[in-house]
Amino acid sequence: MRAALDSSVIFHLASQLYAFSAVSVSEMVSISEIHEVPDREPCMRGLINLRGSVLPVLDLRLRLGLPSAAEELEQLIRVFDAREQDHRNWIQELESSIRERRPFGLTTDPTQCAFGRWYASLKTDNVVLETYLRRIDAPHREIHRRGADALALEKAGDYEGASAIATDIREHALKETLSLMEDAKQALRDAQREIAVVVQTSAGRVAVVVDGVEAVEALREREEDDDQRAVLSSTEPELSTIRRRMKDDTLVVELDVWRLMKPEWSMTDEGQGAAAWHDATGEAANAAGLDF
Q: Which CATH superfamily is domain 7-68+196-287 in?
């Protein structure tokens, strides 16, 4: 990778932009398989074989105290699971209220059910998630619109007509909504892939896992302000320098790659605990058939 000496490799973790000095970055790679190393810090994921070289893998989210990408994905999957169950409960409540001739206990406003409120408040740059939410929106609104029609017939005393609409909702709009939610979960799992920025640290070359690489460009410094202090309070101050993008003044946290790896994590013969780490990684590499 070739870049100007004052350039930075900008990447994102969750909703925040970070950067490494470009002179410390050798390349960006997609990781297909990580070989685990026993008894290591959670942020040290294991080893990869990069064209015959064995590199340690550092999960930058965990290094900075953020939830892992896998954990964040599973939280999102659980949200979809809950919203699916909400709508199964919704149709059951509609059918029961018509059958028992009692008031409906939920909402027919698509913006006021749990899914509608979540969708309205969600801000995401996940293209897969946004695409599926837009596809879900129409049949989801149809569920609630037809539910209101059923309740209007019930109020008029047409219980047979109300029941027919409830059945139609279950067999069409609800079925489509639930199917799209299942498809969304699978698509989100399929789209998740590990991207690593290979950097030179005090412990040698390390593959640092990030959410995605944004750009390689020069950044400018700016005097510290309240926004910067807030970001630094959530990141190790000695690890970070606040910069700004030239094109739009967006705040970027530039990380010192030489401070990323603690001495006891070293894969070299230097640093506290290095021998134990070297032995463990050597055993893992041998077990995986890698040359270490």
A: CheA-289, Domain 4 (2.40.50.180)
